[in-house]
Request: fold
Amino acid sequence: LGLNVYSAVALQYKKDGFISLASKVYAGLFTHFLCEYMLFEEIHLYTYDLFAEKVGFKLFWGCFVFYPFFYAIGANYLIEHAENADLTPVQAFLCAVIFYSGWLMTRGANMQKFYFKRNPESNSCFGGLIQQKTISNSKILCSGFWGTSRHINYMGEITQSIALALPGWLVSGSLIPWLYPAYYIALFIPRQIDDDAICLEKYGKPWEEYMELVPYRIVPYIW
Reply:
């Protein structure tokens, strides 16, 4: 994925003799996306991909074939339209704000859950900023990020993908870059339904209490 993004930036420089602000923002955000993912690699051992779907064809095919090419689908539109349009500094800043808002949601939620699993006796995390509260007689977190929606981490990833779709769309007007967030929406809505069903079967009454306490599935205060 990183090589595809950086190759697109290099091609733009070779073709036009400069790197547009849109491409710099796009490559910069993806660089953070990749480096941060590798830095917190251990945390992903506690996510749905591994504990529910396991390691198999889907994960290998996705990581080696689908993700590297599909996630960077907006890069082509940055190259084609570099001479005609670019992001304004304000637009570039807003793309970064949207991206890091999503990063805060998804990484914060996963870090909170990871810390709880590793330190179940602790009553707080993030230096005391969040109190670790659970549904009675269960290990279901219901405070902090997990008190805003039952799958706030999904909301964060969708938000990040929107930020990465914006540069290509803003400079070209094409809707193709929006396939990236559309893919996440199509992936996470069925996954949320499956995950809730799995948790309801696993936890029973405590999960029903959690759904009543936190009625929002993915989007806080909306859905």
